[in-house]
Design brief:
The protein is mostly helical and about 150 residues long. It is built from five helices and three strands. Keywords: Actin-binding, ATP-binding, Motor protein, Myosin, Nucleotide-binding.
Length: about 150
């Protein structure tokens, strides 16, 4: 009997019998799903109930599929919860892609810079081997390629 009360099994059974598949305290729900809308991310500024309503309505879940209690949000069908979770996963996937893209850009730029330095060093070394070679600055477009776009 003590374990049943301690684990909250009575409350769990009562909620399941009422037809709700998912329930969480407002804070937990907001911290998990605030990423779904720009207004609620990273923190919802305002009443928690309004924030939860805003998040759920922005996803397109009907009012009959969810209810707000005194301190918890209740969702009736697992499909509604799966929709929230899927949209959340897509957001995180987008964030991961942005981070990967930036890392690859930075990594490839350093590789390109190293290759460019290596190529410049080869040219300098060849010039040093040939005694009559003169170092000259690049003075511009020697072949007038800017004036001839076909080439």
């Amino acid at each position: 009997k003590h374990q049943v009360e301690y684990l909250g099994l009575k409350e769990n059974i009562r909620i399941k019998r009422a037809g709700f598949a998912y329930y969480r305290p407002f804070e937990n729900f907001l911290s998990r799903f605030s990423i779904l809308t720009p207004e609620s991310y990273p923190f919802w500024k305002g009443d928690q109930k309004e924030g939860i309503g805003h998040i759920i309505n922005s996803v397109g879940i009907e009012k009959t599929e969810w209810e707000l209690g005194v301190s918890k949000v209740f969702i009736k069908t697992p499909e509604s919860l799966f929709l929230l979770e899927e949209i959340r996963d897509r957001k995180f996937d987008g964030f991961a892609r942005v981070l990967q893209k930036q890392w690859r850009l930075a990594n490839n730029k350093s590789v390109y810079d190293n290759e460019k330095q290596f190529a410049a060093q080869i040219v300098v070394n060849k010039k040093q081997r040939y005694f009559a070679s003169i170092n000259r600055r690049f003075a511009g477009n020697y072949f007038n390629l800017d004036d001839q776009p076909i080439l």
